[in-house]
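Re: weekly structure request thread

Next one in the queue (172 aa):
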Amino acid sequence: MALAGKPGRVYDGRPHPHNRAYSEFDMLGNLPEGHVRLALDSRTAEGTIVANRRSYDEVWFPWEVYRGGEFRFSHGRLTSFSFERGQAEFARKYAKATAGKDRTGSLSIGVNPRIRDVPYLESNERGSVRLDVGRNTWLGGSNRSDFHGSISLAGSEISVEGTPIVRAGKIL
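Done, posted below.
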């Protein structure tokens, strides 16, 4: 994956109502919180990510829960997805979605050391990674799809241009 070159957003439980880098939805703060979210270049993705945490459809509440997910990317596109739980619902929403649904949207890195495998807070767990596909315009990205899907992985490893920044879930 590649970053979109936009400033990241820190979600630390504090509202950001006057910061133009944040969207109108960031005027509120959630507690507990703790992640950094980055817009991704929606043309770049290669490889596979396999979830070991729950994932959610956060478009409409109550959120649909997905488990045991896997996303495969090739040449910048999501080429396949699977879930042990929620496969049919994810596939139904994906089939109806607009262009860009098969492109990366954002990446979140959890930084909260007190959260561990808590429902709806997985992306805040220190060292966890959440990869979103679909819309990322609210982060300054270029993907305008009406779709949003995610997959979460705790205990991850992330490198930026060959330099590790997260290893075995620990931020370096």
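The mean pLDDT is 86. Residues 9-171 form one domain.
Next request, please.
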